[in-house]
Amino acid sequence: MDKLNLNKINNNIIKNRYSVANNNVKYKKSFEEVFNQIKNNNSVKFSKHAQERMKLRNINLNSEQIKSIEKAIDKAANKGVKEALILMNNTAFIASINNRTIITTATEDQLKENVFTNIDGAVII
């Protein structure tokens, strides 16, 4: 092999390494952006069980009420609460604060003489 061909091969290898390195950085940045977007998502989720209870108990929430629940979850999180009872308009919501998920719901009728366990905080809104 002559010196000219060897230089071309070396240049191609260097270019390919640089290209692969750039592609890895792009993927890492994209993953990082997606991860941060998911991490910063403040919306509340409702478990399948909670959705079934809401339907069964005819609990309907408008966007303002959902925002109130999200704020209650934020307050509980700021105090270090992990599982919270959120009371709003004679309706109870049990929430996993870390997961920002409503686990179950209860109306005024179910609240009477009921004991809530496995909670470490309550927010009344």
Explain what you see.
The mean pLDDT is 83. This protein has a five-stranded mixed beta sheet with strand order 1-4-3-2-5. It has 125 residues and is of the alpha/beta class. A hairpin with a 4-residue loop joins strand 3 (91-96) and strand 4 (101-106). The protein is elongated and about 80 Å long. The protein starts with a helix and ends with a strand. 53% of the residues lie in helices and 19% in strands. The protein has helices at residues 3-39, 48-56, 63-78, 108-111, and strands at residues 45-46, 83-88, 91-96, 101-106, 121-124. The chain has two domains: 1-41; 45-124, no CATH class. The protein contains four helices and five strands, in the order αβααβββαβ.
Major sheet: size, sense and barrel closure? 5 strands, mixed
Question: How many discrete structural domains?
Answer: 2
SSE ordering: HEHHEEEHE
> How many β-strand stretches?
5
Low-confidence stretches: none
Silhouette: elongated
Kindly report the spatial arrangement of strands forming the biggest sheet.
1-4-3-2-5
Helicity range: 40-55%
Radius of gyration: 26 Å
The proportion of strand residues reads: 15-25%
Mean pLDDT: 83
Structural class: alpha/beta
Pfam family, one: Flagellar_put
Organism: Thermohalobacter berrensis
InterPro entries: Flagellar_put (IPR013367)
Protein name: Flagellar protein
How would the blueprint of this fold be written?
Layout: H1 3-39, E1 45-46, H2 48-56, H3 63-78, E2 83-88, E3 91-96, E4 101-106, H4 108-111, E5 121-124
Parallel strand pairs: 1-4, 2-5
Antiparallel strand pairs: 2-3, 3-4
